[in-house]
Fold this protein.
Amino acid sequence: MTTTMIEPAAEWSPQVVAGQAAEQWSAACQHLLDQQRGEVLSVTPPAETLRAHRVTLKLLLRFGHALYLTACDPDYPDRQFAERLRGRLAQLEHSWRLVHEPLADAEADPLIGTVFPQ
């Protein structure tokens, strides 16, 4: 088994590593949200697509919460970092509710009647 060593960047720091991890995580989140628009929300998705979406979304939520906990530490130097993570987490949480916890017809009908009175 061959192991590849990654050379540290000239300006390596834990904040740089955390920032890079957050950028990669955010890009993965955007990819999932784009895929969700095309393959989950615009059509009736097959069960396997919904299962894969659920698994991926759970993983992204868990990893995002771990990053967020790090960024919320009072000693973390970049306060805006936590705010950016919180915004992306809110998108993922909304996605979870939208796709995996939809309203039942009995709950949705009164809301529709209120928003769109006849």
Q: What stands out?
A: Helices lie at 14-41, 47-71, 79-100, 105-115. The mean pLDDT is 87. Residues 58-99 form one domain. Residues 26 and 88 are 7 Å apart (CA to CA).
